[in-house]
Amino acid sequence: MFDFDEDAQVLAEQCFDYIRNRLTNRPQPVSPPTADELRAAVGVTITPDGIGSERALKLFAEVLAPAAIPLDNPKHAALIPGAPTIASILFDACVSASALVAEAWIEAAGAIHAENEALSWIASLAGLPETAGGCFINGGTAGNLSALVTARDAHAHGRRRVACGGDAHSSIAKALRIIGCDALVVPSDDRGRLTGAALRSALAADGDAGSVFAVIASAGATNTGAIDDLAGIAEVAAEHDLWFHVDAAYGGAGMCAPSVRDRFAGIERADSFIVDPHKWLFGPLDCCALLYREPQRAFEVHRQSASYLETMRVDGGMDPTDYGIHLTRRARGLPLWFSLATYGTDAYRDAVETVLANTRAAVAIINADPLLELIMEPDLSILLFKRIGWVEADYLQWAQELLAEGVVFVLPSKWQGETVGRFVFLHPQTSVEMFQATVDAMA
Ligand SMILES: Cc1ncc(COP(=O)(O)O)c(C=O)c1O
């Protein structure tokens, strides 16, 4: 089990073959089987003697893995898809093989150095000072929570409320529940955005504005892709001594694209922000970049203390575990680092611009079709649109048929209480033709 013996060599070849095949043929999205169907197809796999690697791998390759809607298929245009680069996927396997515990410098200095290079690049996209820093954590939910814990413990001074827009991601409400704080929900504008003006009015009208210690803005709302008025919000945050956190989990990648960079104006004033490389920075699951303007403040809040941990601290290094709610951590930023190092940042800029150009072409298709109505001009790469005359059941059937026929995976959404079509461009190979086929099915 622990020696790289002859059996292990055979298994390695089988796994390499699986990876090669998987990367050559991205499976189609399919509707999920039921639990009973899977139980019948798989049988019992955990037994005292084991079923053997050959059978287990065959089951995985032929039954378990295909029972999925793969994130990296360009036909995935629902929720928030992914598009990990080939380098990032292959290197993820190398990271697994390297058994790196990237919580502390003493354990994985080289990996942490490389991760920090990737973090610095992201911080520089946002225009944060060179002294900004943080860590990679497992996802946007944990990233938002870690930032809010920092804000509460380093900045609140007894205040217990956080302002956010009505369209803030659901992980924000969850984080507030966890940290025992309440939301001041500020009404969004007609595009679902939080604006500085609305925040200022809400604070002025609130009888207890002094209890608000932070404001959370979205740079790329999940439903619409809309970017809040970051500059206006930063201004109000400064006026009211609020911690300014930006949730750019999906949208932050747009900062590499010159054609939309000005929409992020104001993010350079954030006290903290997150971007998920597993979303639009072409990395594998699961990875969130969590950045702080003044990382020392997060360090003071998140550092865990135990007798056995004190001796692992070394001078001259940084311990990523001290900047979030985790302790043990995978070096999950390394696949992004390797991909950036392999292809270069210009390739990232071009890939994000390709996605934005496809989105604009899709907008033109909607605008030219009298049966369709664009809900709003997209800030980034998510489209909401209406099929005139349709009700919820029509959208649900449309999505089911598109999935069943292997055209594309989309899920309808809601806008102002009404069911609408939603299409997410994120994979650079999600083409305008795929979008055309998607809306042709609405005729
Ligand atoms: C804007 C935004 N914030 C936070 C999250 C939560 O991130 P995760 O799913 O990585 O925990 C998401 C996920 O879709 C998101 O789109």
General description of the model:
There is one protein chain. The protein has 443 residues and is an alpha/beta fold. It folds into three domains: 60 residues; 253 residues, Type I PLP-dependent aspartate aminotransferase-like (Major domain) (Aspartate Aminotransferase, domain 2, 3-Layer(aba) Sandwich), CATH 3.40.640; 95 residues, Alpha-Beta Complex (Aspartate Aminotransferase, domain 1). Helices cover 43% and strands 12% of the residues. It contains 16 helices and eleven strands. Strands 1-7-6-5-4-2-3 form a seven-stranded mixed sheet, sandwiched between helices. A hairpin with a 2-residue loop joins strand 10 and strand 11. Bound molecules: pyridoxal-5'-phosphate. The site of pyridoxal-5'-phosphate (PLP) has 14 residues, from helix 6.
Per the principal axes of the C-alpha atoms, what is the gross shape? globular
Specify the CATH class of the largest domain: Alpha Beta
How many independent structural domains?
3
How many strands, which pairing sense, and closed or not: the largest β-sheet?
A: 7 strands, mixed
* CATH architecture label name of the largest domain: 3-Layer(aba) Sandwich
Q: How far apart are the termini?
A: 58 Å
CATH superfamily of the largest domain: Type I PLP-dependent aspartate aminotransferase-like (Major domain)
Cα gyration radius (Å): 23 Å
- In the predicted model, the low-confidence regions spanning at least 5 consecutive residues are none
Secondary structure tally: strands: 11
Protein structure class: alpha/beta
Q: What is the number of helices?
A: 16
What is the residue-averaged pLDDT?
A: 97
Helix content: 40-55%
What ligands does this structure carry?
pyridoxal-5'-phosphate
Strand and helix order: HHHHHEHEHEHEHEEHEHHHHEEHEEH
| The CATH topology of the largest domain | Aspartate Aminotransferase, domain 2
Strand order, main sheet: write it out: 1-7-6-5-4-2-3
What portion of residues belong to β-strands? 5-15%
